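Hi, here's the filled form for the chain we discussed.

Project: internal
Contact: R.S.
Residues: 235
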Amino acid sequence: METVDLRDFYSGGYFLLRAGRPDWPPPFGEFLPSGNLISLSHCICRKRLSVLWGWNPGNRAAVLEFGISETRLAEFVAWCGTEYRESMALTSMFYSPDAARSFIKRFELETDNLFIIGAGLPQEPHKAWQEEEPDNEGIAKRVKQAIPIEKSGEPIGYDVVGYSYTDFAHSWLCSGLEHDMNKLFGLRANTSGLIDTYADAKKVNDWIAEDDGQGVRAEPEPYDFWLLVSYPLDE
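And the returned structure, exactly as it came back:
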């Protein structure tokens, strides 16, 4: 991972997730590392906490799979009613690493393979969000506030990921682009499934953008490249 100055990145919020790996048949995943991956996309990291899990009818299986115990299920559902608004926005964005840490402590989550991940938007795409993104809730609202990402974390790589319905959607990996990007640019994902340099992340994002949202090169949604930053689980 290249050296970066976190002052150059604007916060798109903080997310609580467990690293994972999609069970895709070949040729998908051919150029991915063998271990668990970290991504803002639910397709890659399906265990990314969402307040929607606690709404009626909810997703009880996802709650339990994430590590919230059966005995705390009713408390979690109640928390998803209105209390969540003190620490997070729809549908999965915490306002700060401390807010995510408070959730971990309250629901006594096992910390194995658990990550607090911040999303940092570089200055160039940030200007486009300010000027072009009509949404003004959750992630979009936080981006438009131009708040620098917290400096206490460790950058782990760039994720090229789409945005849809107030949340992050598909990543570049969801369309099997690790093969195309290796062939075109000699690019390989790092051990977390992320891209190590700003220049390479921009190449991938620009290549997707040439499709003009037609859904041929990737999903028909706007993509950007985000620096992912990992924060300590304990204060």
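Let me know if anything looks off before we file it.
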